[in-house]
Amino acid sequence: MATQSKNKVLEEETLVDADVHLAIPDEELLPYLEEPHVSRVKHTSLGASPRDGWDRTIGGKISDEKYMNLRDNLTPQTLRDDLLDEFHIDRPIINTFAAMSRNPEPDYSIGLMKAHNDLLLDRFLDPVDEFKGIATITTQRPEAAAEELDRMGDEKDIVGAYIHNTGPTPPLGDQYYDVMYQAAEDNGLNIVFHGSANGMMYEFPRQNQSLNKFLEVHTLSHAWSQMLTMTSIIVEGTVEKFPDLDFAFLEAGLSWASYLAYRLNKEYSMRRSEAPLLEKSPEEYVRDRMYFGAQPLEEPNDPEDLNRILDIIGYENILFCTDYPHWDFDTPNALDRHLRATFDPEERTRVLSENAAEFFGLSL
Q1: How far, in Å, CA of 294 to CA of 317, rounded?
Q2: Minimal CA–CA distance to 85: which of 28, 196, 10?
Q3: Mean pLDDT, to the nearest integer, of 205-210?
Q4: What gap in Å lies between CA 297 and CA 335, rounded to an integer?
Q5: Contact 291, 355 (CB under 8 A)
Q6: Which of these ranges, 15-24, 150-159, 189-198, 202-211, has the smallest mean pLDDT?
Q7: pLDDT at 284
Q8: Assign residue 58 a region: left if phi > 0, alpha if psi is -120 to 50, beta otherwise?
């Protein structure tokens, strides 16, 4: 998938990729499920999770054949070949890209949650020392999520908790989820939030039904989900109730984060009584407790504008990510050329590996 010469410059660097996806074919989940969920997956025409109907290929103009082949044949060896050998990534952090939180059947989602985590451990983490994983958590029943975090917390290769945040109701700062966050904190598993365009039909149903092109949906979905989640966990005080938890926001780019931090500052300065748990400004929580995946990189007409965005967010808050193996993933060099223009070598190293090592508790 990659061009080796283009990635040669990073061969001597330590790279931690915070966003490596597995999109698991339904049939591969069956050995890890129990009844009645096995029959549910076997006999439904919708797949394990509902589909949204949008055309992601523009009638075939964007070919995702390579991605689909990878998705359906994604093995530990495939990941070794592409990530370790071609991209020179030292620690891929793998998630199953599961989006169970939007499913209307909680018991089924809980079954899928456990199956995805067991498959991740069995097929990818146990056989390959370099791979680390993020436990997928479904949010409809926070008590069940807490139990799963307790189960996964004993696994040495599980280094975080993955929450699909396009679809959960209520928003993820609600006290309803406190038991889930408490379990994450107790097990030393920081929280990774990741949205999807597919979930727009649940989180933002009017917009999903009213927008005419997938371009519009894909532009808005990830950033809107992250903005809703960040606003909720700050204003509702999740950041204060669980002081040992940090939070990462993946696959929404970077520029939305500073805008939202500054806007929250403005609102908080006028309405502090509505966020009584906060002891600092919203911006301080963002800078002290939150990390942002640098994929997909924004593409301003003037490349210098992206360098300024990186500088505003700050090297301490940026995680290197590829979004492998999706059709729109970023190779390591896509970010690195801007890191070299913006940060000194020590700061660049923080972005490429040390921030993720700190967030996920890794020894490099």
Answers
A1: 10
A2: 10
A3: 78
A4: 7
A5: yes
A6: 202-211
A7: 98
A8: left
pLDDT in the model for residue 3: 44
Q: Judge whether 54 and 217 are in contact, CB under 8 Å.
A: yes
The string of pLDDT tens digits covering residues 245-272 is 999 999 999 999 999 999 999 999 999 9
Q: What is the 3-state secondary structure (H, E, C) of the chain?
A: CCCHHHHHHHCCCCCEEEEEECCCCHHHHHHHCCCCHHHHHHHCCCCCCCCCCCCCCCCCCCCCHHHHHHHHCCCHHHHHHHHHHHCCCCEEEEECCCCHHHCCCHHHHHHHHHHHHHHHHHHHHCCCCCCEEEEEECCCCHHHHHHHHHHHCCCCCEEEEEEECCCCCCCCCCHHHHHHHHHHHHCCCCEEEECCCCCHHHHCHHHHHHCCCHHHHHHHHHHHHHHHHHHHHHHCCHHHHCCCCCEEEECCCCHHHHHHHHHHHHHHHHCHHHCCCCCCCHHHHHHHHEEEECCCCCCCCCHHHHHHHHHHHCHHHEECCCCCCCCCCCCHHHHHHHHHHHCCHHHHHHHHHHHHHHHHCCCC
- Residue 234: pLDDT band with limits 50, 70, 90: very high
- Give residue 67's pLDDT: 45
Query: Which of 53-67, 78-92, 173-187 has maximum average pLDDT?
Result: 173-187
